[in-house]
UniProtKB/TrEMBL annotation, chain B:
It is a multi-pass membrane protein. It is found in: Cell membrane. The keyword Secreted does not apply. One of its GO terms (cellular component) is plasma membrane. Belongs to the cytochrome c oxidase subunit 3 family. Keywords: Cell membrane, Membrane, Transmembrane, Transmembrane helix. This is Cytochrome C oxidase subunit III. GO terms for molecular function: cytochrome-c oxidase activity. The keyword rRNA-binding does not apply. Gene3D superfamilies: Cytochrome c oxidase, subunit III, four-helix bundle. InterPro entries: Cyt_c/ubiquinol_Oxase_su3, Cyt_c_oxidase-like_su3, Cyt_c_oxidase_su3-like_sf, Cyt_c_oxidase_su3_a-hlx.
TrEMBL record, chain C:
It is a multi-pass membrane protein. Its main location: membrane. Pfam families: COX1 (PF00115). Keywords: Cell membrane, Copper, Electron transport, Heme, Iron, Membrane, Metal-binding, Oxidoreductase, Respiratory chain, Translocase, Transmembrane, Transmembrane helix, Transport. One of its GO terms (molecular function) is cytochrome-c oxidase activity. This is Cytochrome c oxidase subunit 1. InterPro entries: Cyt_c_oxase-like_su1_dom, Cyt_c_oxase-like_su1_sf, Cyt_C_Oxase_1, Cyt_c_Oxase_su1_BS, Cyt_c_oxidase_su1_bac. Its EC number is 7.1.1.9. CDD domains: Ubiquinol_Oxidase_I. GO terms for cellular component: plasma membrane. Pathway: Energy metabolism; oxidative phosphorylation.
Length: 338, 200, 635
């Protein structure tokens, strides 16, 4: 009996011990946000209690089967005295079940209430989920403080950040497990999600509502940084794109503006104002391109531009035929947009 | 396995009416399915209404006349329907024939008026969600009208064949009458929903 | 073959002559005509079961393909398009073409036998139901072969499945396949409800109904109340796609979440449509192999009914992250948790039965033990996801994939396999192999847990569902590879099961009437049962008729042998009312199904198909119901 119970507890602890080994930067166990931390506490509580319940049931099952082996053939009908005693045990077990469930309901209710909710004064970011990337608009008190970016959310550590969630085409779901639970982005509806990182770091998230062909490649990164670093980042993001610093980059800009690129992408400070694709004003400063697909380097930009349909089949970026020189210069240009 | 005869059922009738008939229970079960369907569409109507800023969406209120006419005819038809069912129970073959002819007529007339109900909705199914849901409600009920009318016509025709004078047919007549009552009764909440909720 | 004279009573004939006369009256014709016109519930149910297991095997192949793709990061075994079709097919196939039909089919086979009647109520509707089910399954799989299979998930959320984003005919095929399977399921539900309420053996009052029959009755009511929601949902989806209605279009006053409400109002009860029959099987098996009646009969029945009612009050827990008001969410947390109470009652009663019984460890009982071990895990993770905050972390992740496979495989497929081992001798007249049975049990049990338990951890480690691949820098590679390899063990277990089943139909040991010494009426007739099930209608005066009077069955006489006759009895006390006729074979259900199929498939391409397609349907139905000059039409 005792050994089974011990095994049950060990089993309960198994997930966390296995996960301790994972440096999960997209893991509910590696909770670094206020919401994720309180949910994790709830999860640990429920997993432990449920494991004990399971172990008890299995212990009774084994004992019942073991007992039965010793018993002889069926007697003539169940004994009423034994039946009454069994009934009492069953009623007690049901009562215990009700109590455990009531505790879970109450704890879950209070955990929901305790989850932080950002107010209207807090930093607000509009997140637009679309096939298969994340459009971001940082809202400010005045229109000129607003700016567009994509796939990489920067937030200050220790402050509530309000995300306004909009589904542009189909339903998406924003999930950064290290910081908070998920919330859907639904066309025709407005949802909100509050993020609050307790420690600086990069937290990966991913769309978790099936959204079509490239649902698997719709990641985003939340970078939590100290207030000063964040303010500096925000200031630089508001700036228009840097002007080309050498001939190759200038040639790249020409390619970008003269080829179909500008029809879908915007680069503030140039004539490119397309809105179908991500804003590329500071694309070179983001860690990843194509919604978490590739780390941003000149090489990866070139690879992506030359053949987006092989790297992310079915995505909305067409293959634009460029010469080797054009490809080189345009990727140099984009990489320079820090 | 050895068997021991403990009862003799040779005296039992070989056909049962109403709750002693499996067909009656089957009809009831199908009515339960369809009532659930009607309730759901009405729930969808209320749900969409709840979301909309104004209701009806971009459309005038439906005209009352054709729908109300259908309601009156349906309610009136309940009387011969009840009588037909009673005659069937009494196995009065001549009256059953009369009742079935009458019910065939009273099934056709509301269907003819129904044709004027759709334009009286003043909205198309593809105009907006309001139009979609009222067309769905009306269409669903019309499908039931047609189904029961076909059933009535076939039964009425049967009554004028050799096979008509059979207690089993009389049971079918009763089940058909029960189903017609269902078609009439379910119309009332749908009528209220389509025509009167927008006027509240 | 003996001549059947008009109005011959069973009491006038000696047993061999009686059997011959009944066999002549209840005979299904041979040849193609017989195949198409059969209305014997056992023949239809056998077809249903075999077809459903064929779909299980196909769905398993799809699962293997997915595991092959997911074993490694950024694998290119399947294209994203094919993967999305495959996971959609896997879910749709397993839910609509395997799980629900197979459970209903077990009911179609067993319920008439267990209640002691000669055929199911509305046997022609039953035949129709099978053809429609087959057509729906064929539609889906032919579409898959043509690379036109739905790719929007088994839940087909709008707008992805809507007119704007769901290109081609893929989503229409999904929606119409739903219509097929729902018609089939609703038809069977009506038959079972009426069979249980009106065709029970004299004396089988409500408190003497076997628990499996209770579970099928309750399930059928859930089908009746839940399926209209998905019929309406899929129809309005088709209308949105085909004729431009706006039910789900937010730009024109429609709503995206309306789809989810409708889908889950059906979708959650769907789980219980699959699970409750399994619960009934568990009770039947435990009773027989623990050698005593199930403890707490009344509590078990109440738990079934409570589950079926609560099942309609918790659909919103599938929508905890859609941003619905928090107060509503708390209500649905409470209701979702509370369904664990009837589940607990049942588990405790089974444990009590085993505790006070003398268990015989044969394969069916092994599967039931495997059921308790795994289903309790699935139930407990179900309690976890009922909590809103917990759910926001695991919703749409592999944690949920693990959870519902524990519930559906652990909670339904294990009992089903146990049930197949248990009733196989009744259905085929031959026993399955104990050795292979134990072998398949252990492979399936171990393989299942090794495959699905790690998915809990994957989900918590951030792996979402329905992704066709993941990137090499995610820490999921090792566990995914482990899961993929483990799935081979699970497949091996199923292979052993299939081999055993196919082999045993030919070379299995011949089964006696009641090889397990079970207490219920299906074991009171030959294995396999004759076309008329019982030569004389059983009379019941207890819950375990075959245990109460070992070796002797009380029966009634006085039924005609020249007419397909069975007893209709009162709902509560099962007092005999009528010697009612049961319909003979008919080709019309087949033609009605063909006409319905043409109409439904036509409507994928043009709405007018509903108009011209309804004419042949009407003709077929008239042919179906038009009285024929048979003894059954006498009154």
């Amino acid at each position: 009996m005792r050994t089974r119970a011990t095994r049950g507890v060990l089993l309960a602890l198994l997930p966390s011990s296995v996960l301790a080994g994972c440096t999960g930067w997209q893991s509910a166990f590696d909770a670094q946000g206020a919401s994720a931390i309180s949910i994790k506490q709830l999860m640990v509580l429920m997993v432990v209690i449920c494991s004990v319940v399971w172990a008890l049931v299995i212990a009774v099952l084994i004992r019942a089967l073991w007992r039965g082996r010793e018993q002889v053939e069926r007697s003539i009908g169940p004994d009423p005295v034994i039946e009454r005693r069994t009934a009492r045990v069953v009623v007690a077990a049901v009562t215990a079940t009700v109590i455990v469930l009531a505790v879970f309901t109450v704890v879950s209710f209070f955990t929901t209430r305790a989850l932080t909710l950002a107010g209207h004064d807090d930093l607000t970011i509009k997140v637009r989920g679309q096939q298969w990337w994340w459009g971001l608009e940082y809202l400010g008190p005045t229109p000129d403080e607003r700016f567009e970016t994509a796939n990489e959310i920067h937030i200050p550590v220790g402050r509530n950040v309000r995300l306004q969630l909009e589904g542009i085409d189909v339903i998406h779901s924003l999930w950064v497990p290290g910081l908070a639970g998920k919330q859907d982005l639904i066309p025709g509806r407005r949802n909100e999600l509050t993020l609050r990182a307790e420690r600086p770091g990069a937290y990966r998230g991913q769309c978790s509502e099936f959204c079509g062909l490239q649902h698997a490649h719709m990641a985003l990164l939340v970078i939590a940084e100290q207030q000063e670093t964040f303010d500096q980042w925000m200031r630089s993001q508001r700036e228009r794109a840097t002007d080309p610093s050498d001939a190759e980059i200038a040639a790249g800009q020409q390619v970008f503006l003269s080829r179909p690129c500008a029809a879908c992408h915007a680069i503030r400070g140039t004539s490119a104002t397309g809105t179908n694709g991500p804003d590329l004003t500071h694309v070179g400063g983001r860690r990843y391109i194509a919604a978490g697909l590739l780390e941003t380097t000149r090489g990866s930009l070139a690879a992506w531009i030359s053949d987006p349909q092989t790297l992310k089949p079915g995505n909305n970026m067409p293959m634009v035929a460029l010469s080797a020189d054009e490809l080189r210069s345009v990727s140099a240009y984009l990489a320079s947009l820090k | 396995m050895k068997t021991r005869v403990v009862a003799d059922f040779s005296g039992l009738p070989i056909h049962g009416f109403r709750s002693a008939s499996v067909t009656w229970w089957g009809t009831l079960a199908f009515m339960l399915i369809e009532a659930t369907g009607f309730a759901l569409v009405i729930a969808v109507y209320l749900y969409l209404m709840n979301l909309a800023a104004i209701w009806p969406i971009d459309a005038p209120k439906p005209n009352l006349l054709p729908g109300t006419l259908v309601t009156v005819i349906l309610l009136v038809s309940a009387i011969p329907n009840y009588l037909t069912s009673r005659w069937a129970e009494r196995e009065d073959f001549r009256r059953i024939r009369i009742g079935m002819v009458l019910m065939s007529v009273l099934g056709t007339v509301p269907l003819a008026v129904r044709a004027f109900e759709f334009p009286a909705l003043n909205v198309n199914w593809d105009s907006n969600a309001y139009g979609s849901v009222v067309w769905a409600l009306l269409g669903l009920h019309t499908a039931h009208l047609i189904t029961d009318l076909v059933d009535t016509l076939v039964l009425a025709a049967l009554m004028f064949t050799r096979k008509g004078d059979n207690v089993r047919r009389f049971g079918d007549v009763q089940d058909n009458a029960m189903y017609w009552n269902f078609v009439v009764v379910t119309w009332l909440p749908i009528y209220g929903c389509i025509y009167w909720i927008p006027r509240l | 073959m003996s001549e059947v004279k008009p109005d011959t009573r069973d009491s006038e004939l000696a047993p061999p002559a009686l059997a011959a006369a009944l066999a002549e009256t209840w005979r299904t014709p041979v040849g193609l005509w017989g195949v198409l016109a059969a209305v014997d519930h056992k023949i239809i149910a056998r077809r249903y079961i075999v077809t459903a297991f064929a779909f299980l095997a196909l769905g398993g192949v799809l699962a293997l393909l997915m595991r092959l793709q997911l074993a490694q990061p950024e694998a290119r075994v399947l294209s994203p398009d094919r993967y999305n079709q495959i996971f959609t097919m896997h879910g749709t196939n397993m839910m609509f073409l395997f799980a629900v039909p197979v459970m209903e089919a077990m009911g179609v086979y067993l319920v008439p036998l267990m209640v002691g009647t000669r055929n199911i109520a509305f046997p022609r509707l039953n035949a129709f139901s099978y053809w429609i089910f087959l057509a729906g399954g064929a539609l889906l799989w032919i579409a898959f072969v043509l690379d036109m299979a739905p790719d929007v998930g088994w839940f087909a959320y709008v707008p992805l499945s809507g007119p704007q984003y769901g290109a081609g005919k893929r989503a229409d095929i999904w929606a119409q396949m739903i219509t097929f399977t729902e018609i089939a399921a609703l038809a069977v539900a009506v038959e079972i409800v009426v069979t249980v309420l009106k065709q029970r053996a004299p004396g089988m009052s409500l408190d003497r109904i076997p628990l499996f029959v209770w579970s099928m009755l309750v399930t059928s009511f859930v089908v009746i109340m839940a399926m209209p929601a998905i019929v309406f949902a899929s129809t309005s989806l088709i209308l949105d796609r085909l004729v431009g209605t706006h039910f789900f279009n937010p730009a024109e006053g429609g709503d995206v979440l309306l789809w989810q409400h409708l889908f889950w109002f059906f979708g959650h009860p769907e789980v219980y449509i699959i699970f409750l029959p399994a619960v009934g099987m568990v009770s039947a098996i435990i009773e027989t192999f623990a050698r005593r009646p199930v403890f707490g009969y009344l509590a078990m029945v109440m738990a079934l009914i409570a589950t079926s009612i609560l099942a309609f009050g918790l659909w919103v827990h599938h929508m905890f992250v859609t941003g619905l008001p928090r107060l509503g969410q708390s209500f649905f947390t409470a209701s979702s948790m509370s369904i664990a109470i009837p589940a607990g009652v049942q588990v405790f009663c089974w444990l009590a039965t085993l505790w006070d019984g003398a268990p015989v460890f044969r394969t069916p009982l092994l599967f039931v033990i495997g059921f308790i071990v795994t289903f309790v895990i699935g139930g407990l993770t179900g309690v976890m996801v009922a909590s809103v905050p917990f759910d926001t972390q695991v919703h749409d992740t592999y944690f949920v994939v693990a959870h519902f496979h524990y519930v559906l495989i652990g909670g339904a497929v294990f009992p089903l396999l146990g049930g197949i081992y248990y009733w196989f001798p009744k259905i085929t007249g031959r026993m399955m192999s104990e050795t292979l049975g134990k072998c398949s049990f252990w492979l399936i049990f171990v393989g299942f847990n090794l495959t699905f338990f790690p998915m809990h951890i994957l989900g918590l480690a951030g792996m979402p569902r329905r992704i066709y691949t993941y990137q090499p820098d995610m820490p999921w590679y090792g566990l995914n590879m482990f899961v993929s390899i483990s799935s081979l063990v699970l497949v091996a277990g199923f292979l052993v099961f299939f081999i055993d089943a196919i082999r045993s139909t030919r070379v299995g040991v011949s089964a006696a009437e009641n090889p397990w010494d079970a207490p219920t009426l299906e074991w009171a007739t030959a294995s396999p049962p004759p076309s008329y099930n019982f030569a004389e209608i059983p009379v019941v005066n207890g819950l375990s008729p075959l245990w109460d009077q070992p070796g002797c069955l009380m029966v009634a006489s006085g039924l005609r042998t020249d007419r397909r006759e069975l007893i209709v009895s009162t709902v509560a006390a099962a007092k005999p009312q009528v010697r009612e006729a049961s319909p003979r074979d008919s080709i019309w259900p087949f033609w009605a199904a063909v006409a319905t199929t043409v109409m439904l498939i036509g409507s994928i391409f043009t709405p007018w198909a509903v108009v011209w397609g309804s004419v042949p349907v009407a003709i077929a139905l008239i042919g179906w119901f038009w009285p024929k000059a048979t003894p059954e039409d006498e009154s």
